[in-house]
């Protein structure tokens, strides 16, 4: 019975595990960088579209405030990436991988 417990423990140790939502591995994930970039640029466009758009800008775009709508879309994309990142944190494999037929390492 002791051998089964050791094998089960060893198997579980080799499985990839999810990190906590606020770990360094989570914030180094590509989704966090995409969320940050979409968020920064979306915020800039939203602020510009809401407060600094001119009549000439609106005339070029057939009366549609493209900066505002593009900024809002980018903020929604950033929120989507952030929700995805927090709902499914990255899986990082820990431990030693054993390759069959490989010579034993020291």
What layout of secondary structure does this protein have?
Blueprint: H1 2-14, E1 17-18, H2 24-27, H3 30-51, H4 55-60, H5 66-87, E2 91-92
Largest sheet: 2 strands, antiparallel
The helix-and-strand class reads mainly alpha
The coarse silhouette is elongated
- Strands, count: 2
As a percent range, the share of helical residues equals 55-70%
Keywords: Membrane, Transmembrane, Transmembrane helix
Transmembrane segments: 33-54, 66-87
What do you see in this structure?
The chain is built from five helices and two strands; from the N terminus they run H-E-H-H-H-H-E. By secondary structure, the protein is mainly alpha-helical. The protein has a domain at about 45-90. It has a two-stranded antiparallel sheet with strand order 1-2.
Keywords:
106 residues; mainly alpha; two-stranded antiparallel ribbon; 5 helices; 2 strands; elongated
In short:
The chain crosses the membrane at residues 33-54, 66-87. It contains five helices and two strands, in the order αβααααβ.
